[in-house]
C-alpha cells in the first residue's frame, strides 16, 4: 500500500501546481491539511494535460490479451465489503474535490472510476500526496497511533499485520493468503500473497497500480504504523507480494518504474493516464 530523499521530507517539501485549463469540472482544494507525513498543501485545477514528472521510460507496451467484458464484480460483494468500498471511494472523491454525483458508476466501479480520473489529471507526486491525504482522512489517527505503540516492529507484529491484511482487505485487493518468507535471515509468516489483485485487474493499468496503490501504501504504512513494507506486483499474472518488515528500494531503483503499461490499458486510452 505508495526514497530518493528521505520519504518524510520528500512529501513535506512537495510543491504541487497544475495548468488552470478548465477541462474537467472538479477542483482539488486541500489547503493546510495535516497528514502524518507532514503538513500538506494542495491547490490545483484538474486539466487534460497534467504536469507530469514521472520517471517511467516506456520502450514498448506489455503484451496482454485485452480483458473481456465481465459482469460487475461489485455485485458479488457482501454488505460489509460494499460499505468499505463506498467509504474509501467517497473519501477519495471528497479529497479530490469531486462530488459523488460526478461518478455515474457505483460500488468498486466507482472507486476505479475515481482513481482513473485522478490518475489522468494529476502528476505522479500529486497522486501520491492525494492518496496519503485520503488515507489520513479515512483512518482515525488515534487508532493508528495506538497500533504503532502496541505493535512495534517484531516477528509477532509482522505476522499479525500479514494476517490482518488477508482477513480484512479482501474487498480491496481480492483473496490472499499468508506465506512464509525470510526476514533478517530467519523464516516467518509475514508475507501476504495476493493471487490476483482486484485493483490491478479492474484498472488494467501499471501506472495506477504503482502510483495510487503501491508507493503511497508503502509510505503510509511505514509512517503511520511504523512498519516497513515492500509491495511487489507481478504484471504478468496480476498477483502481488506484500512483505512486511522489508524496506522498499528507492523509487528510482524500484523495478516497477521501468515497467511499461499493458497493451490494452483502458485508463491510458480513455483518460490519458501517464505511465
Topology summary:
Blueprint: H1 7-12, E1 27-35, E2 38-45, H2 79-95, H3 107-121, H4 124-138, H5 141-150, H6 155-168, H7 170-173, E3 176-183, E4 186-194, H8 198-203, H9 206-225, E5 229-234, E6 239-244, H10 266-271
Antiparallel strand pairs: 1-2, 3-4, 4-6, 5-6
Helix pairs in contact: 2-3, 2-4, 4-9
Element order, helices and strands?
HEEHHHHHHEEHHEEH
Low-pLDDT sequence parts? 1-71
Main sheet: strand order: 3-4-6-5
From the N-terminal CA to the C-terminal CA, the straight-line distance is 18 Å
The secondary structure category is: alpha+beta
- What's the number of extended β-strand segments? 6
Per DSSP, what share of the residues sits in E-state strands of 2 or more residues? 15-25%
**How many DSSP helices?**
10
- Helical content class: 40-55%
Average residue-wise pLDDT: 76
Can you tell me the overall shape?
A: globular
- Report the radius of gyration as a whole number of Å: 18 Å
Largest sheet: 4 strands, antiparallel
Describe this structure in words.
This protein has 275 residues and is α+β, with helices and mostly antiparallel strands. The chain contains ten helices and six strands, in the order H-E-E-H-H-H-H-H-H-E-E-H-H-E-E-H. Helix 2 runs parallel beside helix 3, helix 2 packs across helix 4 and helix 4 (124-138) packs across helix 9. The chain is globular, with a radius of gyration of 18 Å. The two termini are 18 Å apart.
List keywords for this structure.
alpha+beta; two-stranded antiparallel ribbon; 6 strands
